[in-house]
Amino acid sequence: MKVRVRRLFMLTTLVLLASCGPSSAPVEDVDTFSFAPGAEGLDLSHHNGAVDWPRLSTAGLSFVYLKATEGEGHVDTRFQENWLGAWRHHWQAGAYHFYLLCQDGRRQADNFIRQVEVRSGALPPAVDLEHAHNCAPQNSRGETLADLKVFLAALEAEYGAVPVIYTTPAFHAEWLAGEGFDAHPLWVRSLEGPPRLPYAIWQYSMKGRVPGVTGNVDLNRAAE
């Protein structure tokens, strides 16, 4: 039987969105995931190559999100290897899906669910929503947003946790603001400084360097 997951993970509860105001301060909510304030982490995919997990574990980071899937059928070729490596080396780990606006939301959810086990102690699933490398919607705006909500609801039902939305300020303004996604913690890419959106996680660099990974990595920081 699958174990349903709804967790408080470390010390301080972070964010469920309650509004879309201009302040960068996170909005607290006691019924979502949490990190130590300012905890540092990274996200990885096959683009980062093979990971030396023992070396990476010396970097002073505490959490990692791993790319699992993209669209209806793509699976990241390093996901299972990275997933096992992260757990074996006691990382606070979660998986994410790159969502394609031109594909079916339910089938995208099925793709993710097939690859990512329900594991006690995992970070909530995350969905990457951005313009880069995406495709033009095939349906109306309303139908596309409804499809995205089907995807998110399927993940919440499977994993017992509200999915995190990774996004950029531009994508958020165009697609998400005022459209009923306020229950989802935000993971915001903002390379010029802290996000002006309420956020749970801030991706502050795409050119980080860490032991155990060759080349640049994305670096993230939990809200303080």
Describe the model.
The chain is α/β, with parallel strands linked by helices and 224 residues long. It has a single domain (40-222), classed as Glycosidases (TIM Barrel, Alpha-Beta Barrel). 23% of the residues lie in helices and 23% in strands. It has five helices and eleven strands; from the N terminus they run βββαββαβαβαβαβββ. An eight-stranded mixed barrel has the order 3-4-6-7-8-9-10-11. Helix 3 packs parallel to helix 4 (141-159). The protein starts with 11 loop residues before the first strand and ends with a strand.
- Counted beta strands: 11
Coarse morphology? globular
| Unreliable residue stretches | 1-32
- The amount of helix comes to 10-25%
Q: Kindly state the mean pLDDT as a whole number?
A: 88
Protein name: Glycosyl hydrolase family protein
Signal peptide: 1-25
Family: Belongs to the glycosyl hydrolase 25 family.
Keywords: Glycosidase, Hydrolase, Signal
